[in-house]
Design goal:
This protein is α+β, with helices and mostly antiparallel strands and 68 residues long. It has one domain (11-67). Helices cover 34% and strands 29% of the residues. The chain has a three-stranded antiparallel beta sheet with strand order 1-2-3, with no helix packed on it. β1 and β2 (18-26) form a beta hairpin. The longest helix is centred in the C-terminal third of the chain and has 23 residues, at 45-67. The protein starts with 10 loop residues before the first strand and ends with a helix.
Length: 68
């Protein structure tokens, strides 16, 4: 893992076309702005984990149907 220190208004660049900027800091919360191509999906980690779990369950369900 790469850990960086950034201040409000500062950014990090990932690859050639993804920019993550610190837009505000309030207490323990940091607000990020993300600029990326429309082809890049961006999710909060907790939501992404739910999507992965549901996709695995759907694949199992499909495998069960295919066995019939």
């Amino acid at each position: 893992m790469l850990a960086l220190t950034r201040k409000k208004g500062e950014s990090v660049i990932i690859g050639d076309d993804i920019e993550i900027m610190v837009t505000s800091i309030r207490g323990e919360q940091v607000k990020l702005g993300i600029v990326a191509p429309a082809s890049v999906s961006i999710y909060r980690k907790e939501l992404y984990e739910i999507i992965k779990r549901e996709n695995r369950e759907a694949a199992k369900f499909r495998a069960d149907i295919d066995k019939l």
